[in-house]
Amino acid sequence: MRVAENLNAALHGLLNDDHTAYVLGEDILDPYGGAFKITKGLSTRFPERVIGTPISEGALTGVAAGLALAGNTAVAEIMFGDFVALAFDQLCNFAGKSVSMYGRRLPLRMVVRCPTGGGRGYGPTHSQSLQKHFVGMPGLSLYEMSPFHDNRAVFAAMLERGEPCVFFEDKVLYTRQMERVDPLFLMRRDGDLAVVDIRDAGHRPDCVVIAPGGMVHRVLGAMRSLMMEEEISARLLVPSRLYPLDVDTLLPHLGDVVLVAEESTAGGTWGSEVAHLLHARLWDRLRGPVRLVHSRDSVIPTAAHLENEVLAGESTIHHAVREALRG
Amino acid sequence: MRVAENLNAALHGLLNDDHTAYVLGEDILDPYGGAFKITKGLSTRFPERVIGTPISEGALTGVAAGLALAGNTAVAEIMFGDFVALAFDQLCNFAGKSVSMYGRRLPLRMVVRCPTGGGRGYGPTHSQSLQKHFVGMPGLSLYEMSPFHDNRAVFAAMLERGEPCVFFEDKVLYTRQMERVDPLFLMRRDGDLAVVDIRDAGHRPDCVVIAPGGMVHRVLGAMRSLMMEEEISARLLVPSRLYPLDVDTLLPHLGDVVLVAEESTAGGTWGSEVAHLLHARLWDRLRGPVRLVHSRDSVIPTAAHLENEVLAGESTIHHAVREALRG
Amino acid sequence: MTEILDGLRLSRLADDDLELLLLVRHFELKLLELYGRGDLNGTTHTCLGQEYVPVALRSLLGPADHVFSNHRGHGHYLSRFRDPHGLLAEIMGREGAVCGGVGGSQHIHRDRYMSTGVQGESMPVAAGVALHLKRSEPGTLACVHIGDGTWGEGAVYEALNLAALWRLPLLVVVENNGIAQSTPTASQMAGTVAGRAAAFGIAHRLVVSTDVNEIRLSLEREIARVREGQPLVVEFVTHRLGPHSKGDDIRPADVVQAARENDWYARYAHDHPEHFHRLDGVVKAEVEAVADEVAARPLSRWEGSCV
Amino acid sequence: MTEILDGLRLSRLADDDLELLLLVRHFELKLLELYGRGDLNGTTHTCLGQEYVPVALRSLLGPADHVFSNHRGHGHYLSRFRDPHGLLAEIMGREGAVCGGVGGSQHIHRDRYMSTGVQGESMPVAAGVALHLKRSEPGTLACVHIGDGTWGEGAVYEALNLAALWRLPLLVVVENNGIAQSTPTASQMAGTVAGRAAAFGIAHRLVVSTDVNEIRLSLEREIARVREGQPLVVEFVTHRLGPHSKGDDIRPADVVQAARENDWYARYAHDHPEHFHRLDGVVKAEVEAVADEVAARPLSRWEGSCV
Ligand SMILES: Cc1ncc(C[n+]2csc(CCOP(=O)(O)OP(=O)(O)O)c2C)c(N)n1
Ligand SMILES: Cc1ncc(C[n+]2csc(CCOP(=O)(O)OP(=O)(O)O)c2C)c(N)n1
Ligand SMILES: [Mg+2]
Ligand SMILES: [Mg+2]
Fold this sequence. Notes:
A: 327 residues; alpha/beta; globular; C: 307 residues; 12 helices; disordered N terminus; binds magnesium ion
C-alpha cells in the first residue's frame, strides 16, 4: 500500500471513528481531494466535517484550535508546509501556549499536517523542511510521517498527547510503499521506534543513523552502497515523534558512532537537538561527536540539477558515514 | 550611559548619517517614543523617515523589506519580540529568501528589532526569547544586544551584511549601563567578541561560559558567587552575532569545560547549535559535552514567584558550572 | 445597516447592573493605585470608561455562549463571573487566582471565557468555536471583544471572511475608544469599522449610547439573529478614561476632557444621585476589602506545572 | 466608483500588441506540451485566457514602475520584457535563465519586476516599495498582481490599510478568474472585491472587457491618479482557460465552455481573421524555435551560489 493511501485511510478512519473529528484545509474537497490527493473521498463521506477553506493558513489553523478548544478533534492541512510560516503565531502563541498558560492543563486534540521537503522542483518557497523552526515550543509536539509507522496509529498517538501537533509529511514518501524494505534489510519495531538492520549482518552495526521518516529511502540506499562498496554495516533508527524526542528508546540501539540525517538545510537543525540529548547520555561511549547530515545552507533551487546539489541525499549520507568511520 | 540610551543614540545616528534610512513600528512616534522609549526623539528629528504603523507586524515587516528592496535602509520595531511570530512568513519566505532565491545576490539592508525576554511579569505572550526559532534560515542573520557592544557599531555590522537581520534586545538590559563591569572583572574585546575574566585570576579560567548579551549580568553574578563561594574562576564570552556564529573567534578563548547560557526555554536552543559547532572542532580537548543552560521547558508565567522558577538566572548558571566541574 | 443611538439622560439602572458597573470601576481604580504603590509587577490595561460595554452585553449573553476577551478584559471577566477575588488574585499571583497566576491580567481562561494578549489572534479561534457551536449547540454564539487598533491585524479579516462564508454565530464587539496605545484611530485605520464589516457582507451596528438599558434594547434583535448564523459586528463608540496601561497617557488635554465628559460614572451620579450614592460607597468598600483580603493571601501555586 | 465595460466586437490591435498576446498564448501552450511530454519537472501555472491583462496594462506602466507578479506570471513577465528565451530557460533550468534556474516559474526577479510563490506576501512588500517611490521617485507606482483567491490572506488587508493611510502609489491588479486552484470564488470570498476596496476607502475599477484598446482607454485616468498617491484596485473579470497548474482541472464542462467562449484568441481570430492569421503562425513558429533553441542549451549555472 502506498504511503499516501495509508494516510488517506487514516483520515477516513479518524473521521469514521471519532464523530467530533474535523478535517479542514485548502482545496481538500472532492473531486479535487487536495493538492496531493491525501484527502480524497473524505468530503464525499463526511460532508459536514470536512471543510474547504479560503487561502488563509493563519485563520484555518486558528479555526482548528477553536474546534479543539470546544472539545473536537481537528486536523488541518497546510497545502505546502512552507506556508505554515503564516500560522506560526497561531501555533506558537495560541495553540501551544493554551495547553498550559492558563494554569491548568487544557488538552487540545489538534494536528496540523505539513507536506514537506524538496526533490520535486517546486522551488524555494514550496520545498522546505521547517521542522527545526518548531522545535522547543512548550505545548507543541512534532511528528514525521514514515513508511514504517502506520498513519492511523500515529494520529492516535498525536491526539492522545492532548496537545497540538505538527505532522511533517515528506512529499516524496506519498508514492512509496508502506513497510516494504528490500531483502537486504530487516525492519523491526521497538515501540515508537523503527529499527532497520542489514539482514544477518551477524555482528553489531559499525554505525547508527537516526533519521525521520522522510529520509528513510535515502538512508537505506546509503546503507546498501556502504555495505556493497565499503563493507560498512549501518543501522537505521526512525522515530515517529521528533519532539519531544524519547531518547531512552534510542539508547539500547546505539553504538559508538552515531549520525543524524535530515533534509533540513544547515543550521539549528533537529539533529543538533538530538546530538545534544545523546552527548549528555553517551559522551564516554562515543568515538566522536554525533555527526549531522543535512542539506546545504541554501535556499532550495527549482532546477533539478541545482536542487540535487543542495539537498541531502543518498551519497551525502554515504560519505558522512564513511568519514565518520574512516576519518 | 544606559543601554536604552545607547540604542536610541544609535538610531539617531543611523537616521542622521544615512539619508535612505527609515525606522518604522507601532507607537514609535513622539511624544510616546515607543513602548520601551527606544525611538524617543526620532520622529521629531526625522518626521519623513520615522513611520508609525497600525498593529500589523506582518505588513510592517513586509514594508521594511520593500523599502530595502528599493535600496533603502529599513529598521522595523516589533513592540514585543513575541509578535515577530506574525512576521515569520515575511522573514523566512520573503526577506531571507530574496537575498539568494533569484539566482543573483540581492542585498537587503534591513533590521527587525525584537525586545525580548522575561523577568518583568508581562506574561506568557510578552516574555519569550524566540531566537532559536530563527536559527538556520538561509539569508537571515541573528544578532543580540549586549552592554559590551556599542549599538551604532552593531547596526553598522548588521547592515554591512546586506541581508535581513533580526536584532534581539533583552528588555532587562535597557535600564543597565553600557560597558560597566565591577572591579572584580576585566572586560576586553577580541573583534566581535567580548571576553570577561576575573581580574588578575592569574591562571587560565576553570571554565568558559558563552552567552548572548541578555545573559551578561546573570553570568557575571554567577561568576562572582562561583569565585567567592567555590573558588571557581569562569570566563564569559559574548558574541554580538548569534547566527551564523563565527566559531573561530571563540576557539582561542575556550578550555576543556564550556557552557552556553541563554534565556530560551528548553529544546532546540541556540546553545545546541553552538555545542554542535564546538564539538566538531574541540571534541578531544573537551572534558565533557558543552553544557546548555537555559530556562525550563515551560511557558513563562506572569507572577514573579512563578516566573523566577522558570527563567534561567544567576543560580541556574552557578549550579550548572559547579556541576560541570565537580560533577 | 447602521443606526445611531443617543442618550442625553441615563436611564435608571437595576441595582445589580449599577453594582457591577461600580465594581469594575473601583476594581480598576484600585489596580492603578496598587501599581502606583508598586504593589503589583508586570503591566495591566484598565477598562476605565468602557465598563458599561460588558455590563450591557451581560444580559444578552448566556452561560453557553463563549466570550473571547483581550488585553483590556477585567470588565469582561467581572461582568461574566462577578469574581473580583479570583481576578485580583490572578493579577497579584495569590492563592485563589483564576489561572494560578500563570496567565495574569491578559491571559485568563474559565469555563467558556478566554482572553489572550496577542491582538487579533482570537478572531479565527472564535470562528472555530462558532463553527462548533453552529453544528453542535445551535442557538449559542461566540463573542469576541477587540479594539479599533486590532483592525490592523490580517487575522481579523481572515476570520470575518470565514464567519460570513460559513454563516457562523460570531459576535464581534468592537470597543472603539478612538485610540490604540498612543495611536489615534485615524492614523491607524483607513475607512470605518462599518465599511470593513460591509466588505464581507456582515451586519454592523453602531452604538454611541452609554446607557445600559438602551443598549440592551437596541441590540436584542440583532444578537438573536447572530444565534441563527448571521454574524454581527457591534461597534461601541467609547472612551478610554485612563492610560493605555500605567502612566503612559500622552493624549492632549481636550481628548482626555472629552473622555471625562462622556464618563457614565459622573453622568449617572448626576442623573441619579440618590441611587448612585447609595451604592457607590458600598461597592468601593467591598473592593477595598477584596484588595486587603487578597493581598494577605499566600502566593499562588501552579498545579500541574511542568516546572 | 465601479463602471462596467463591454466589448462585443474586439477592436483592431496594433501589430506589436497582437504579437505579444500571441507570444504569451503560444508560450503557455508550449509549456503544457513540454510538461505533457515530461520534458519539464516541477510545476507551472499558465495564464491561458488571461494574457490580455498584462498586455493591456503594458502601455500604462513605465520602466520606472515596479511590478509584483505571482505564481501565474509568465504573461506579466513577457509583457514587460518580451524575453521568451530567458523565461523558458528559467523554467527549463538552462543557460541564459533569468534567475539561473534557481527561482523557476514562480520566483523571478529582473530590474523592477519580481514574482514570488506565496500568496499575498508581496502586497506589504509592494506597499513598502510604493512608500519609497512616493518619497523618492514621485510619479512612479508599484503594481501588484493578485488573484481572487489571494483575498483569503490577511496580508492583503494589512497592506490595503497602509496604502490608504499613507496615500501610496499602489496599483492592485486583481485577476478574478472565478476560481482558486479548485475552489470557486463564491466558496472562498464573502462579499466582493469592490466592497473590500471600499472598506479602506480605496478606489475600485471593474473591467469586464477583454479588448486591449478599450481597457487602456478606460484605465488611463485612474492609473494617472495612482501616481499622485491615490491607491487603486482594478478588478479584471477574466477566465482561466487551462488547468490550475498541469492537468488538475476538475471544473464542470459548462464552466470550461464559458471560459472558451470568452477567450480573446478565438474571438480575435473571428473578428479580424486576416490580421490574426498573418501573425498567429509566425509567432507560433517563433515560440517553436525558442523552445528548440533553449532545450538545446546546457544546464544553467548558479553564479554566487553558496553551494
Ligand atoms: C499582535 C500584537 N501587537 C501589538 C500588541 C501590543 N498592544 C497591546 S494593546 C495595543 C493597542 C490595542 O489597541 P486597541 O485594539 O484599540 O485596543 P485598546 O487598547 O484601545 O482597548 C497594542 C499595540 C499586542 N498585544 N499584540
Ligand atoms: C500562502 C499560500 N497558500 C497556498 C498556496 C497554493 N496556491 C498556489 S496558487 C493558489 C490559488 C490562487 O488562487 P487565485 O489567487 O485566485 O489565483 P489564480 O490561481 O486563480 O490565478 C493556491 C491555493 C500558495 N501559493 N500560497
Ligand atoms: Mg482602542
Ligand atoms: Mg483565481
